[in-house]
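Design request, tokens follow.
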């Protein structure tokens, strides 16, 4: 029996060695080499080529090697088997670090002080709001959104989350669905996107959303942090809203086209911070261990811990 690695852009051999350590009873095979398709019971994928998982008669489950699963649904001939995603405490902690870092840079106006330093300007008359004066709104109240929310609240930020279904979490202002979106945006100074890329979230970060953000915040115009997916952002709208002051700053880890093309205005825009889709790098060993644990659960007749629901796309 074998596990098929189906990935593009990552180092195959290091993944193969890790999987072999975690799944000694399995033959680890990979796309692009000769293998017996009849023996493949599981596939572990990151951006596999369309159609490459078809024709695997014994396939039982497909494991995404990333937390996001939009790359799976990009394959229109994805086999109809169980799908699972990555949930890993290390990845979650890294994402929260990213969100907290950029909220603190905004709160403490670090970019302003960096500018002042370059000009050798000792100006200490700026308003210094407290964390409790700054309203952070997180789109997505899942594994990542909730962890980031908890850490921001521990620092004193006034945090709200928006999700598809309503959830009540102590200390957190929870909003849900289309009717909850307006009130959520109206009380948001820093908008953080941690939504998955689905047909419903495509292009959701657009002018219509930005114009509903709070205009009376202690930090001035609202800010955007997108560490979810580039497919959620209308990039022309983001640039236009930065240019006309609707947005004060955008911190973007993800883009519609990755790597971000050299010609993109995001690279040089003075009020944009770009990171190369590494807000939350995954620990490959932790991911292989997670997948080995899921396979063991399936062998024992137990359900997957982190299943993906095809109907909702995440
Ligand atoms: P989860 O599946 O745990 O949470 C998703 C959240 O989004 C849920 O709260 C869900 O609502 C909400 N949601 C989904 N669709 C809608 C919608 N149409 N309207 C409102 N809310 C919606 O995902 P994670 O927190 O684990 O991850 C989120 C995303 O982060 C990933 O899908 C991936 O794209 C991205 N990511 C980015 C990384 C990076 O390095 N930049 C690294 C890892 C992940 P509900 O609670 O009702 O289900
Ligand atoms: C992702 C990941 O989904 O890196 O972006 O896990």
């Amino acid at each position: 029996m074998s596990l098929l690695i189906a990935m593009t852009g990552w180092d195959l051999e290091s993944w193969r060695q890790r999987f072999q350590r975690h799944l000694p009873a399995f033959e680890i095979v990979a796309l692009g080499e000769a293998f017996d398709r009849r023996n493949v019971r599981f596939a572990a994928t990151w951006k596999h080529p369309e159609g490459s998982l078809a024709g695997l008669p014994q396939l039982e489950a497909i494991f995404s090697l990333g937390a996001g699963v939009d790359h799976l649904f990009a394959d229109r001939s994805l086999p109809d088997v169980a799908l699972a995603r990555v949930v890993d405490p290390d990845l979650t902690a890294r994402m929260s670090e990213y969100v907290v870092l950029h909220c603190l840079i905004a709160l403490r106006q670090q970019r302003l002080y960096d500018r002042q330093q370059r000009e050798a300007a000792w100006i200490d008359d700026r308003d210094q709001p407290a964390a409790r004066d700054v309203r952070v709104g997180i789109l997505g109240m899942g594994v990542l959104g909730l962890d980031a929310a908890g850490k921001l609240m521990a620092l004193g930020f006034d945090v709200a989350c928006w999700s598809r279904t309503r959830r009540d979490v102590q200390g957190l202002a929870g909003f849900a669905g289309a009717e909850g979106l307006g009130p959520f945006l109206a009380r948001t100074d820093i908008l953080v996107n941690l939504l998955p890329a689905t047909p419903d979230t495509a292009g959701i970060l657009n002018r219509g959303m930005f114009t509903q953000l709070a205009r009376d915040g202690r930090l001035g115009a609202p800010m955007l942090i997108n560490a979810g997916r580039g497919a959620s952002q209308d990039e022309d709208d983001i640039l236009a809203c930065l240019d006309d002051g609707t947005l004060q700053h955008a911190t973007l880890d993800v883009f519609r086209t990755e790597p971000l093309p050299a010609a993109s205005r995001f690279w040089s825009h003075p009020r944009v911070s770009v990171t190369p889709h590494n807000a939350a790098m995954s620990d490959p060993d932790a991911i292989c261990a997670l997948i080995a644990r899921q396979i063991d659960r399936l062998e024992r007749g137990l359900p997957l811990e982190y299943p993906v629901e095809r109907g909702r796309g995440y």
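Comment from the thread starter after seeing the answer: thanks! The domain at 90-274 is CATH 3.40.50.720 (Rossmann fold).
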